[in-house]
Design brief:
It is built from 5 helices and 7 strands. With 181 residues, it is of the alpha+beta class. The protein folds into 2 domains: 35 residues; 137 residues, OB fold (Dihydrolipoamide Acetyltransferase, E2P), CATH 2.40.50. Strands 1, 2, 3, 4, 5, 6 and 7 form a 7-stranded mixed beta sheet that branches. The longest helix has 34 residues.
């Protein structure tokens, strides 16, 4: 009987330890995931990628998709304009194709149904926002309010001289961008 109690106690301690460790691992993973987003601007990404996209599509009048293995995870400080609309069909297609190309799964597009208007400097940008994230906008944001967006660049499409950029918003904070160490 004493041996059985020791075994039960050890099993209980192992379960409690595993649960505690699992929670710590999840917290560490979440911190690492968000820490990869570096302070920056969307206009800097656009500026860096613009000439590459135009060069690849030079002389081609057909629709061209451009995808990058670099997502430029960025914490960008922008102004929330309070407007939304359904995600542009071509931008949604970029999200779908990106998911298929990099994750062999296009279902990521199902997480983005609306895009919201933000302003960065003089530039107005319609950005698809993950549905679960957008569900907090009405409670936490007001039109004209500065907000820090956690944004990834998936790619763009080019057609007849115009580039449509495909960023996605995965999270937001009303606190200013915190600079790295």
């Amino acid at each position: 009987m004493v041996g059985a109690c020791r075994v039960i106690r050890r099993v209980a301690l192992c379960i409690v330890g595993a649960i505690s460790l699992g929670g710590s691992i999840q917290i560490a993973w979440a911190q690492t995931m968000w820490d990869r987003y570096q302070p920056g601007t969307l206009s800097a990404i656009i500026k860096a990628q613009d000439s590459t996209i135009r060069a690849e599509a030079a002389g081609d009048k057909n629709l061209n998709y451009h995808f990058s293995g670099e997502q430029f995870p960025t914490r960008a400080r922008v102004i929330y304009r309070g407007e939304s609309r359904p995600v542009d069909s071509m931008r949604r297609d970029v999200v779908r194709r990106w998911g298929l190309a990099f994750h062999r799964d296009s279902s990521i597009a199902n997480d983005f149904h609306r895009e919201y208007l933000f302003q960065e400097g003089q530039e107005s940008l319609w950005l698809p926002v993950e549905d679960t994230v957008a569900s907090f906008f009405a409670r936490e944001l007001k039109s004209g309010q500065p907000v820090t967006l956690y944004v990834m660049w998936l790619g763009a499409y080019y057609h007849e001289g115009t580039i449509e950029w495909a960023f996605i918003v995965n999270e937001f904070s009303t606190k200013p961008v915190r600079q790295g160490f």
